[in-house]
Write a structure and sequence with these properties.
Blueprint lengths: L2 H19 L5 H11 L8 E3 L2 E3 L6 E5 L6 H18 L2 E5 L18 H15 L3 E4 L6 H7 L2 E4 L7 H9 L4 E4 L9 H10 L5 E5 L2 E2 L5 E2 L3 H7 L5 E4 L5 E2 L8 E2 L4 H10 L5 E7 L13 E2 L3 H14 L6 H10 L1
Length: 329
């Protein structure tokens, strides 16, 4: 045997021995993956005012500017999006953050703060009769936020913070838990269990992309099917999923041109009960997250495409009538 052949064989033997030492998937992970391959079980239905989110219910859009820029600005955006959703037969929840605590730079715009921001959200809720959602970043915010918000959101970076998850769950309001960029979808079971153990069964879970190297995110659509197996309505965040975290050096970048593609793909899995979008009339001049926000004028076409996909999957029967009935109440 030549020296080169001997070396090649030695390398193969080493690789083989390494391969034999690779542990198999843990029983818990294997069980989770197997349940994800099974047919989708009906999710729990989460009631938010007159809106119902879950299996057999109208599709829901959770959307608005990334951060509150002012009362008139949010009212204008929410009113226009409500009309777009009504025409599309989609339920609508207003989203905008009173404080963006997770910023790349300490000098970045964070919003009006909790006190003023909640006043704006209360005005939107009262004026338009729409449910509102915002991020809650710490336990000290929970009581004040729960007095105004219809859905309290656990930010992705904070989904493993047990005390925060439990405090929000105990507020007794519906909650949306965003899956951390660092978290495997099967590990969301433990986060959901914390909320359930605290007495809250009105839980939404949102996929918003997974870290892929530095300054980049990718969407693994297996995540939607896996998380649907936990019995909670699943939401897909189509705008944060195209974010390039810290990609501009002083701020996050984004690739909004891919938002429609990813949203259509998520809905086509059949495991998506709603979508989360940050929407702005002029993203290029938004104070934060402009590169990954959808332009408001592009929303009607996207929702029509979403409904066409759901119709092809047989998921829209009665949805348009139900959504319009909810909007009228």
């Amino acid at each position: 045997m030549s020296a080169s052949s001997h070396q090649k064989r030695s390398r193969l033997e080493v690789l083989g021995s390494r391969q034999e030492r690779v542990p198999s998937a843990s029983p818990a992970r294997h069980s989770t993956l197997e349940s994800g391959r099974a047919s989708l079980q009906p999710s729990a239905v989460v009631r938010v005012g007159s809106i119902e989110i879950g299996s057999g219910r109208p599709f829901v859009l959770i959307a608005g500017p990334d951060v509150i820029e002012g009362e008139r600005h949010l009212l204008s955006h929410a009113e226009r999006m409500a009309k777009i959703c009504e025409r599309a037969g989609v339920s609508y929840v207003v989203k905008s953050s009173y404080d963006k605590a997770n910023r790349t730079s300490g000098t970045a715009y964070r919003g009006p703060g909790m006190k003023e921001g909640l006043k704006v959200l209360a005005k939107v809720k009262r004026t338009l009769g729409l449910p509102v959602l915002s991020d809650v970043h710490c336990r000290t915010e929970v009581d004040a936020a729960a007095d105004v918000l219809d859905i309290l959101q656990v930010p992705a970076f904070l989904c493993r913070q047990t005390d925060l998850v439990i405090a929000i769950a105990k507020a007794g309001k519906p909650m949306n838990i965003k899956k951390g960029q660092f978290l495997a979808p099967w590990d969301m079971r433990h986060v959901i269990d914390k909320a359930h153990a605290a007495g809250n069964r009105s839980v939404l879970v949102t996929e918003r992309g997974a870290s892929f190297g530095y300054n980049n995110l990718v969407s693994d659509f297996r995540s939607l099917q896996i998380m649907a197996g936990f019995g909670c309505p699943v939401i897909y965040d189509g705008t944060h999923s195209v974010q390039l975290p810290g990609g501009l050096g002083h701020a996050s970048g984004g690739q909004r041109e891919f938002v429609p593609t990813l949203v259509r793909a998520a809905v086509a899995t059949g495991y998506c009960h709603g979508i989360f979008l940050e929407v702005h009339e002029d993203p290029a001049h938004a104070p934060v997250d402009g590169p990954n926000m959808l332009k408001l004028s592009d929303l009607p076409k996207l929702l029509d495409e979403v409904q066409a996909i759901r119709s092809a999957l047989g998921q829209t029967a009665g949805s348009r009538r139900s959504a319009r009935a909810s909007a009228a109440r």
